[in-house]
Model the fold of this input.
Amino acid sequence: MLLVEITINGTVRRVSIEGHPLTHNWKPYIVDFDTVLFGIPANYGGYAETQFGNITFNPKLFYDDVFSIDDWPPPVSCAISIYYSDTTEAAKETIFTGTAHRTSFDKESVTYSLFGSAFDDLIYVMGVPPLVVGRTYEIVNYVDGDDFTNVGAASNATGEIFTATGTAPTVWTNYSHLAPHWDDTLNNVITDILSEIPEIATVNTTYARATNPNVLYTLTSTRIAINVASDIAAFYSHLIYVIGDTAYLVDMKLSNGTDWTLTEYEYFASPSYQNATPKSGIKTTYNEESYFAISAYPYGEMSEIDPYHQTEANIEAALADILVLENQDKISVAVPMIAGNFPKLGQKVAFTDSSTVKSQSVWVRARQLRLNFVNETIEIEGEGVIA
Done:
């Protein structure tokens, strides 16, 4: 059951779809709730952003003369928390906490869009202090007169790379440009970048690749930190997702936690199987040199991505991993929504499909989740294998 707490002019109101007399009375004032989308931006990984869409309420939530409620017209914005439970109010799981912003209303319904954490913090190519102590920088454009030798630089010159030992250079008034530079493991680089986001307290790398790839990259322009982390993670075939204040870095080549094996009673009939649109290869360019991974499908299209390393062996290894994921077939299966049993991104889900003309063993790694709280179903989609 879907449970929603919405704060209207300082008062918390509790509503649901059908109405539930639990510890509190959750009134049946939810008219509709868009399917929640949670998935990675590319077949080979990146940051999985949650898209919540809209929630629509019965106008009685805002005006009901029987219960002396008068908050009409509906407020433009409200704090909102969304939960799901199979049993009791105490067992509810938090699905979303954020802000509801009104988009429309009429005599029959009031619709709000949902906004969570924006994660819009920037990571900078800098022309002025302060530096971050312990972060490595490259002087990407030195201007005469500036002096960085007191904060760790061996010399004042374009191309100089140093780890900052202080925040304030002796002279930095001529607008030399310094950019964050990384030459470290993927785990450490992602942790460093996500440290720019106050809402993220911890980066969990339990299911990152055991032989952790090396990242060798200098930031080329000021960007949103989560986007930089997303692009780097994807280049090395990893995904990122955030639950609460913890970010999770997961290897796309392995499973995220314990595999989930479904019985024939734990999923809906007729899973679907889609062949990937073939890629002939993946290309990237660094320092005017092009690198490729080539597939067995010369008639497919060639994709081009940005590199996050500078040496041939590292680049080509990353491209080969990406190409495998791009050309892997996709499987989709729907399961009933059960509290405490939501699949994790990257989790391996296995089942036997006896709906086809011949029974087949199947597994899929969850890359896209579509949570339908109205029908209480979860659609799992990702690359997989049919045996």
